[in-house]
């Protein structure tokens, strides 16, 4: 007879950040603002290369099986003394989608949390390991930190700077690689996998969690945007050798923390045409907010292989609250996705997900309709990096979601051809053998 595995223990930290597991309280997570117990299917070992954080001055919430209720744990007894405690959160290695937020009493939080993605974490006492509420959505291991050894990087950066002395883009990317530790920029210097092409100092959205610009009420951004628009010649000089020589070569516009490359569509279209005429191999990808469908048409015709469109929600109201668009509407984004798919490109959504918002019944229904309408190929389930309490408040969250794991199941059931992922793909790998059964991924 199979025995039910005991639930993981609560983790908490003392005021100095030392982490402990609680002798009897059980780990909880949060969907929106509501505490809940994780299902067995969504508990996996903390992925290698993840990190643990404390959530300062914020007491954890746990399940007390003796009292059969959730409790806020402000103090823990140490011998005869009681000590104040704070919650612990995981920041996972990429490739994993969190299914629950850390359970805490966020009303006690005094600081605005920096732009990381916060995940519920506990302690599996039986296996003696940390566990998180998450599911793996991408099996690509290229992006693991162990593949980015800076000792090997520095000589390569110096070499490329000397190789292209007049190219402003290589100078910018050296800063991205060395100062911001951007893995994509490092790939350019390692000449492998996916390399980024930053092109745009400006954007027509004002996202609450933009990592390159924070206009007002959130927190400081951690990257400075590229201050110029490179010429098509600068782009081609740097990216053509990458396409020709790198293993699994992808070059990607709009890879994360610049403005949006749709604002530089003419430059991008010219550079892409040149790259596609001259390169005998490789994938050219465009990441964008997709705000201007005519420009998307232009870029498809220039020879782009794939496009990825970012959104936090497929409901216009929630999209507007996060993206705060300037001069476009969510309907334009939908038209862009349809256009890219209609032109035969591999079309992806960079879906910025958060438990309680993304798996709310209204969002799930809207997502199913969106997939039907656009024909999109892949959902990249990206954990939105933002203070969870701030985001829930701005999104007006009420109630809890159906469960992030259940959401993935539901979408797969309705559209077996939908692929989940976290990273962009080479064109050879757009539709790998057996892709309809590509999730769940066994960890
Ligand atoms: S993602 Fe950001 S840090 Fe990386 S290359 Fe692009 S602009 Fe630079
Ligand atoms: S679309 Fe991208 S660049 Fe523009 S505000 Fe949003 S996160 Fe920032």
From TrEMBL:
The keyword Transmembrane does not apply. GO terms for molecular function: 4 iron, 4 sulfur cluster binding; catalytic activity; metal ion binding. Its cofactor is [4Fe-4S] cluster. Gene3D superfamilies: Aldolase class I. Residues 189-417 form the Radical SAM core domain. SUPFAM superfamilies: Radical SAM enzymes (SSF102114). Keywords: 4Fe-4S, Iron, Iron-sulfur, Metal-binding, S-adenosyl-L-methionine. The keyword tRNA processing does not apply. This is Radical SAM protein. It comes from Geomonas silvestris.
């Amino acid at each position: 007879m199979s025995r039910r595995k005991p639930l993981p223990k609560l983790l908490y930290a003392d005021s100095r950040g030392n982490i402990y597991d609680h002798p009897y309280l059980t780990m909880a997570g949060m969907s929106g603002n509501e505490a809940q117990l994780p299902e067995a299917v969504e508990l996996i070992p903390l992925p290698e290369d993840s990190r643990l954080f404390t959530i300062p001055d914020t007491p954890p919430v746990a399940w007390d099986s003796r009292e059969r209720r959730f409790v806020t744990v402000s103090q823990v007894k140490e011998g005869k003394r009681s000590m104040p405690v704070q919650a612990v959160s995981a920041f996972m290695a990429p490739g994993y989608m969190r299914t629950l937020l850390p359970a805490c009493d966020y009303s006690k939080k005094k600081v605005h949390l920096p732009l990381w993605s916060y995940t519920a974490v506990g302690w599996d006492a039986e296996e003696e390991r940390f566990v998180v509420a998450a599911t793996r959505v991408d099996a690509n291991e290229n992006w693991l930190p162990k593949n980015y050894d800076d000792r090997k990087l520095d000589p390569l950066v110096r070499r490329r700077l000397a190789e292209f002395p007049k190219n402003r883009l290589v100078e910018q990317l050296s800063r991205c690689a060395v100062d911001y530790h951007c893995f994509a920029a490092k790939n350019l210097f390692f000449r492998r996998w996916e390399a980024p092409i930053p092109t745009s100092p400006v954007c027509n959205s004002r996202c609450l969690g933009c990592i390159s610009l924070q206009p007002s009420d959130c927190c400081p951004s951690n990257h400075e945007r590229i201050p110029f628009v490179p010429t098509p010649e600068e782009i081609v000089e740097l990216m053509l050798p990458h396409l020709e020589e790198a293993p699994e070569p992808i070059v990607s516009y709009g890879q994360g923390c610049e403005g949006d490359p749709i604002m530089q569509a003419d430059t991008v279209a010219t550079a892409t045409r040149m790259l596609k005429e001259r390169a005998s191999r490789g994938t050219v990808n465009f990441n964008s907010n997709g705000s201007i469908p005519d420009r998307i048409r232009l870029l498809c015709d220039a020879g782009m292989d794939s496009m990825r469109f970012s959104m936090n929600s497929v409901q216009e109201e929630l999209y507007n609250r996060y993206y705060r668009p300037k001069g476009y509407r969510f309907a334009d984004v939908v038209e862009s996705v349809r256009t890219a798919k209609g032109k035969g490109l591999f079309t992806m959504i960079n879906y910025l997900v958060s438990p309680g918002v993304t798996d709310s019944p209204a969002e799930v229904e809207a997502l199913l309709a969106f997939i039907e309408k656009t024909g999109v190929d892949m959902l990249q389930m990206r954990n939105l990096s933002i203070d969870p309490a701030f985001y829930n408040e701005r999104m007006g969250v009420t109630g809890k979601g159906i469960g992030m794991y259940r959401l993935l199941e539901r979408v797969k059931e309705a559209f077996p051809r939908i692929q989940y992922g976290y990273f962009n793909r080479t064109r050879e790998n757009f539709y790998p053998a057996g892709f309809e059964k590509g999730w769940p991924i066994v960890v």
